[in-house]
Design brief:
Elements (H helix, E strand, L loop, with lengths): L4 H23 L3 H23 L7 H24 L2 H24 L5 H16 L8 H32 L2 H24 L2 H8 L1 H22 L4 H8 L2 H12 L6 H16 L3
Length: 281
């Protein structure tokens, strides 16, 4: 139950894309409006590309609907976590917890029991990812809020990963599945945002349309690669490889957001690399 090297490299590329759009969201001003903009942008990009990809099998549409519902919670928790905490704190907790839950749930959902070497790799990478989270005493109350939102989102991430893996495998066309999911998700999230923030939403989209479309393209591309990979390799392995995006996020945070790349993060990076070795990559 190994992951083919070309598939693994593609997922690592998706991890870089994923870290990039999260950094864009964190660097914005109004996190809720930016999250709505990201969903709207990815939906528009997906709508433009969907006719080329075709339509996924009918059996996958209930999974698309279920994923869109779960993503309502995802975008809300994501925005709130970034509102109260740094990218370098919130992002690793959200992304590190998900693969562990997916590994456990994958046994029941897909009958995928990983060998010991792959299990060790998943644990090393997940521990390394979680170790990236930097504690800050600047505002303990805000950090506790960020932690709560991030832990909640780790559960949500595990849930939608399993849902979308099921849907992508049932679709017969994982790229088409991904694109139509983003179309549906964009409509749902934008509608909810409009109900909550009213005319602020279209004004924000008009003001930030370049950023909205750019971030949306990164999000849709990253997830399309991940779901394609889940049709070719064990879901747990793809999930944990995707979360190596934390290494990229830490580098982006250090380079552009003034967040230090500490000795602890160097050690965490080494743990992630050891996990990749255990996965035989």
């Amino acid at each position: 139950m190994e992951i083919p090297l070309p598939v693994a490299l593609a997922v690592l590329g998706a991890a870089l894309l994923h870290a990039s759009w999260n950094a864009m969201l964190k660097s914005g001003g109004d996190k809720q409006l930016d999250a709505v903009g990201l969903a709207a942008g990815s939906g528009l990009v997906a709508l433009l590309a969907a006719p080329v990809a075709g339509v996924p099998a009918r059996a996958s549409w209930p999974w698309i609907a279920a994923s869109a519902v779960v993503h309502i919670a995802y975008f809300r928790l994501l925005a709130e976590s970034y509102r109260w905490g740094d990218l370098s704190f919130s992002y690793p907790i959200m992304r590190g917890g998900g693969p562990l839950l997916v590994t456990l749930a994958g046994v029941a959902a897909f009958g995928e029991v990983l060998p010991w070497a792959e299990t060790a790799g998943v644990l090393l990478i997940s521990v390394g990812i979680l170790a990236f989270a930097s504690h800050s005493a600047r505002d303990p109350a805000a950090q506790r809020r960020s932690l709560a939102y991030a832990l909640g989102n780790a559960v949500v991430i595990a849930a939608y990963t399993l849902i979308d893996a099921k849907g992508a495998r049932a679709s017969g066309a994982p790229v088409a599945y991904t694109l139509w999911f983003f179309v549906v998700n964009g409509i749902v999230i934008t509608a909810i945002g409009a109900m909550q923030r009213g005319a602020e939403v279209p004004r924000h989209l008009a003001r930030t349309w370049r950023r909205t479309l750019g971030g949306g393209a990164l999000a849709a591309g990253a997830y399309a690669i991940a779901l394609w990979a889940m049709t070719l390799a064990p879901v747990a392995l793809v999930a944990v490889l995707r979360e190596t995006s934390v290494v990229f996020a830490a580098a982006i945070g250090a380079a552009f957001l003034g967040e230090p790349f500490t000795a602890r993060r160097v050690a965490a990076t080494l743990a992630v690399l050891a996990g990749l070795v255990a996965l035989r990559l």
